[in-house]
Design goal:
Elements: H1 2-15, E1 28-35, E2 43-50, E3 55-64, E4 71-73, E5 79-84, E6 90-96, E7 103-110, E8 116-121, E9 127-132, E10 137-142, E11 154-157, E12 173-178, E13 184-189, E14 194-201, E15 206-216, E16 223-228, E17 234-239, E18 244-251, E19 256-264, E20 275-281, E21 287-293, E22 297-303, E23 310-317, E24 323-328, E25 334-339, E26 344-350, E27 357-365, E28 369-376
Antiparallel strand pairs: 1-2, 1-28, 2-3, 4-5, 5-6, 6-7, 8-9, 9-10, 10-11, 12-13, 13-14, 14-15, 16-17, 17-18, 18-19, 20-21, 21-22, 22-23, 24-25, 25-26, 26-27
Amino acid sequence: MKVIRNCLAVALALALLPVFPAASSVREWIVYVGTYTRQTSKGIYAYRFEAATGKLTSIGLAVETSNPSFLAVHPNQRFLYAVGEGSTGITSAFAIERGTGRLKLLNTVSSKGNGPCHIAFDRSGKWVFVANYGSGSTAAFPVRDDGTLGEASASIQHSGSSADPRRQEGPHAHSVNISPDNRFLVVTDLGLDEALVYRFDVTRGTLTPNDPPFAKVAAGSGPRHFTFSPNGRFAYVVNEMKSSVSAFDYDKSHGSLKETQTLSALPNNFSGANSGAEIVIHPDGQFLYSSNRGHDSIAVFGVDRKSGQLKSNTWVGTGGKTPRSFAIDPTGAYLFAANQNSDSVVVFRIDRTTGGLRATGGVLEIPSPVSVVFAAVR
């Protein structure tokens, strides 16, 4: 009876989640690019994007703000949120101005740590999560109806260390990832070589350690970013320090992860310095992509949708230096690669049969780009 009650509770919670427009019904998007403002960048930049034609039109500087490295768009497409990656960490809420696409600051709250480096929503759009790399901590914040952020509803300090005394002397939370059923939050920690799992209470916005509380990767791997498969049965992490990708079976009933495979994200003949950065699975679940800083490429993997296992397909140069992050547009047709050290975001067309990438000739000239997100034009 307990299992039946739990299943009914999950089904009810999912049924109550808001329904937002499908990507196929949207004709135009705004592409927002988060940056580092340590040199010439001023904040968050924006372009209009027509997915049907690939046409891009510059909006320019959407808002001036300090080190908005990673961004998240609210599911209702009316608000955008950014971490302010600094020694005093902040999280900022912005309204997306209808018509112009520019951003208006609503409010700013402490990220409850330093060096915030990743931000993501829960499925309801009522809560936002932040990973603080510098302090190795995780926090959750309520999102009010007017888009402003409330003070943290949860703040958890990680503890421990791992094999590398220089990079892993303590915890370094690197990404926050909500499960498909909105019941668990997975936080990858580079300093601990762990993907920590927390039970999430959507009513109160609280986080409590799961049982089991984490999944380990090989010592010295440095797990960075994470993604679930579209069917919710598998998960994948890019390991920054080992330049590898690990696959997991995901038990959604218990929120547990079991590693099943780890592959190099680099070609066998590459011997230079490199670090893994981003990982994204295609919306149809057939292909997985990860970025290499050093090799300056996107690794393309085929995905067996029955077993979740990966097979290396190819590597595609990003047309620039240090692809810190990249994103697939909501239609699944294009990949935008943010080359941090060459001040460019390069656009690729995705081959839906092979997963291969072909440069479209579209290049967004943006200083120190870090991340890319999309908002539907309303």
